[in-house]
Amino acid sequence: MARILSTLDPDTLTQACDALRRGEPVAVPTETVYGLAADATHPGAITAIYEAKGRPRFNPLISHVSDIDMARAHVRFSPLAEKLARAFWPGALTLVLPLEPSGAIHPLATAGLATAAVRMPQGFARELIATFGRPLAAPSANRSGRVSPTSAEHVAEDLGERIGLILDGGRCPIGVESTIVAVEDGRLRLLRPGGIAAEAIEEIAGLAVERQQPQPGEAVIAPGMLTSHYAPQAAVRLNAADVRPGEALIRFGEAPVAGEDRAHAVFNLSPAGDLREAAANLFDFLKRADASGASAIAVAPVPAHGLGEAINDRLERAAAPRP
Ligand code: TXA
Ligand code: MG
User: Fold this and answer.
1) Do residues 190 and 264 share a domain?
2) Is 179 annotated as belonging to a binding site?
3) 26: part of which helix (H) or strand (E)?
4) Structural domain of residue 299, as residue ranges?
5) Which ligand is nearest to the CA of 60?
6) Is there a single domain that holds both residue 161 and residue 86?
7) 296-320, pLDDT tens digit by residue?
8) 41 assigned binding-site residue
9) Same domain for 245 and 196
10) How far does residue 139's CA lie from ligand 2's centre (Å)?
11) How many angstroms separate the Cα of 17 from the Cα of each of 132, 133, 207?
12) Can you tell me the mean pLDDT for 167-175?
């Protein structure tokens, strides 16, 4: 079983760096979700991430940096990319940028693509990267296909038997993964809605963010986007206007849902109707609704603007037909 160390403990940074230097993956809190981090330049360390998660190797990882100069050593910034990094880093925005030929991010982390996804996280994770001195590849710290973890307990339940060290920084304040945007010749393509609203990116960029779906037969652009994902054990029923026997209910805002009193369990993402609060609660409530023993999880509508785009995206993936 993994050791769990608090990020408040002064020795944790050293212990985590030691494990990373040995090529071991470490679960690290970020403002979005917990990541399973390892040296992005070290093939053995990256392989250990894929193995712990049971993740297909064709699905590339995000490389996390502590400052823009560290990112610049590995990927090429256009003026538009630079503008977005300055506005949103450190924070929940991942930029997909062309690789710098002299960069050292290992091809296992990029799945051999000519681009890399990079992000500068907030808080302890950023401090860890600065101390370690190299980018950290980190997918969400869950087994492939499962709901992303927003607490150290979530990580321990899912990966505790498969990894050596979990750093506990409490609950993740944003609660959904970063927004992923590909920056290409003055265009922005949204590869995954996430913790920064697309509207906020458009405002800084002065450009529309293109929500382009990949064409059949086209190479997968963000493979994690396509399959059933974030899947609880129980079936998930979206846009529920009522609760059916045996179902747990996840709802949003003040309006009650018909049959709510007979629900197996009821979780309100945000009684006040705040999408930020709803995002922060989403994965924890999906896990708890699942653990309630309900046969299915009914989810009442959540507004689609702002962070609601990411929330609805994750809910649709949770409800998608399973492979
Ligand atoms: O908030 C987050 O982004 C969290 C925390 C830990 O930073 N990380 C995260 O990683 O969600 P992961 O591996 O669960 O999702 C990364 C996504 C995948 O869908 C992957 O396909 C896509 O990023 N991706 C990575 N590199 C890419 C690239 N070069 N081009 C397109 N998509 C890429
Ligand atoms: Mg993930």
Assistant:
1) no
2) no
3) strand 26-28
4) 235-319
5) 1
6) yes
7) 999 999 999 999 999 999 999 999 8
8) no
9) no
10) 6
11) 6, 10, 40
12) 98
Mutate-to-test residue for ligand 1 from 140, 196, 220, highest number of ligand atoms within 8 A of CB: 140
Q: Is residue 273 part of a domain?
A: yes
| pLDDT at residue 221 greater than cutoff 50 | no
Which residues have any ligand 1 atom within 6 Å of their CB?
Answer: 30, 32-33, 35, 59-62, 94, 96, 110, 113, 115-117, 119, 121, 138-140, 177-178, 180, 191-192, 221-225
- Considering its fold, how many domains does the chain have in total? 2
pTM for the predicted model, two decimal places:
0.95
Same domain as 49, residue 167? yes
Alpha-carbon gap, residue 27 to 34, rounded angstroms: 7
Atom of ligand 1 nearest to the CA of 121: 7
Chain-centre distance of CA 58, in angstroms?
17
For residue 57, which of 112, 100, 97 has the smallest C-alpha distance?
A: 112
Whether 123 is covered by a domain: the verdict is yes
Residue 109 banded pLDDT, cuts 50, 70, 90: very high
DSSP secondary structure of 239-250: S-SB--TTEEEE
pLDDT digits (tens, 9 = 90+) for 222-239: 544 545 666 788 999 999
CA of 242 to the centre of ligand 2 (A): 30
Residue 218 in this model has a pLDDT that exceeds 50: no
